[in-house]
Design a protein that fits this description.
The complex is a heterodimer of chains A (123) and B (239).
Chain A: H1 3-42, H2 49-56, H3 60-87, H4 93-120
Helix pairs in contact in A: 1-3, 3-4
Chain B: E1 4-11, E2 17-24, H1 31-42, E3 61-64, E4 67-70, H2 76-79, E5 85-89, E6 96-98, E7 101-102, H3 105-113, H4 136-144, H5 152-156, H6 158-162, H7 169-179, H8 187-194, H9 208-212, H10 219-235
Parallel strand pairs in B: 1-5
Antiparallel strand pairs in B: 1-2, 3-4, 3-5, 6-7
Helix pairs in contact in B: 3-7, 4-7, 7-8, 7-10
The chains are: A mainly alpha (123), B alpha+beta (239).
């Protein structure tokens, strides 16, 4: 790959990352609103573990909603993190992307684990 | 109002220092008047750049009390407090040649890198192109076309400081006016040139360029337009 096509490919990849971050932000905005609504509703019955698990156990709607939330976070956060690593820590493009990917996997695994846990707890 | 100004002016290159001068304060005095007084009356070795003195040429921008400004249209009364202190330094993010004169070649090279040149298909033997003044494209181009290339936006942009390869607000604004020029024939090349983190996608929409632009242009809006257009082209595989 020559210099011009490498820089073109990089530009296209970065443009794609930008719109993935934008799309995931739109999903996150809806998820945050949904989550706020759930919180306002949830505190009415008291915030006990039993009460929360009673709502989430075996409930596919909750699992899908929070699964989507986790997925959107795992796309959105690492892309922003890569920019911060490049601009504030002075990391190179490749190193910043690997750091971001690793953090994305961490978010995805820990987030989905939590979703699975509240979905299956006690079942 | 004090009768004199306590003026500090940057002397030397990047490793220079501020030198103090006392300049008489006058009515309707501009920052450029102050610098000119220093050079003509106090120290003829002071280097700075200006041409038109009426806000058209874009050559006299400097850092005035910490902010990039066009000095010919900046009244002293607007930037100096009751202490009468005025600090004048070269524009940020550009190499200093000497004193207040910066090397702007990197700034204008980025205009060229952003494909800021118009490329038409008609010759002087053809009819004039008829562009509808009310069309959305023409209005978007109009909004950004009055740029005078003063580099105030460039010196005010944090992303330029953090990413030296970033094209910057002025070059991207120029590209946006051409993206909206229906006569231009190199649209794909231009979108490629401005795509990615060295182009429009590094902008964090902080808006310093728009806040400081002396011509009230909004490069922030132009860059947002480029981001949308480039993203659409990337999704359609036309980038």
């Amino acid at each position: 790959m020559n210099g011009a096509s490498a820089s073109h490919a990089l530009g296209v990849a970065q443009a794609r990352r930008w719109y993935w971050q934008r799309i995931s932000a739109m999903v996150l905005a809806l998820c945050v609103l949904g989550h706020l609504a759930v919180m306002i509703y949830a505190v009415r019955g008291g915030l006990t573990g039993a009460e929360i698990l009673g709502r989430t156990q075996g409930h596919w709607g909750f699992a899908l909603f929070y699964g989507t939330f986790v997925l959107a976070c795992s796309v959105h956060v690492p892309l922003g993190l890569a920019s911060i690593a490049r601009e504030w820590l002075g990391m190179g493009e490749t190193a910043a992307l690997w750091l971001a990917r690793a953090f994305g996997v961490l978010l995805l695994v820990s987030g989905l684990r939590a979703v699975v846990a509240v979905f299956t707890a006690g079942l | 109002m004090s009768t004199t100004l306590d003026v500090s002016i940057w002397r030397g290159r990047d490793d220079g220092r501020f030198v103090h001068y006392e300049v008489p304060r006058r009515d309707s005095q501009t920052v450029l008047d102050v610098v000119t007084h220093v050079q003509r009356q106090l120290d003829p070795t002071l280097s700075y750049r200006f041409a038109c003195r009426v806000g058209m040429c874009g050559s006299c921008a400097m850092t005035v009390n910490g902010q990039a400004r066009w000095t010919c249209r900046t009244h002293v009364s607007k930037v100096v407090g009751s202490d009468g202190r005025l600090e004048v330094a070269p524009l940020a993010h550009l190499p200093v040649i000497k004193d207040l004169a910066t090397d702007m070649s990197g700034f204008f090279d980025k205009w060229a890198r952003a494909q800021g040149q118009f490329s038409g298909s008609r010759t002087r033997h053809d009819e004039f192109a008829r562009v509808q003044p009310a069309s959305a494209e023409r209005q978007a181009a109009d909004a950004g076309i009055e740029c005078i290339g003063c580099a105030v936006c460039y010196a005010s942009c944090d992303v330029v400081a953090q990413r030296p390869d970033y094209l910057g607000p002025a070059a991207l604004n120029r590209a946006w006016t051409l993206v909206n020029d229906e006569r231009d024939t190199r649209q794909t090349e231009r979108l490629r040139a401005v795509a990615g983190d060295a182009g429009c996608h590094a902008c964090h929409t902080q808006g310093s360029c728009t806040e400081r632009c002396p011509k009230q242009i909004s490069p922030t809006q132009s860059i947002a337009g480029l981001k949308r257009t480039v993203a659409r082209a990337a999704i359609r595989g036309k980038l």
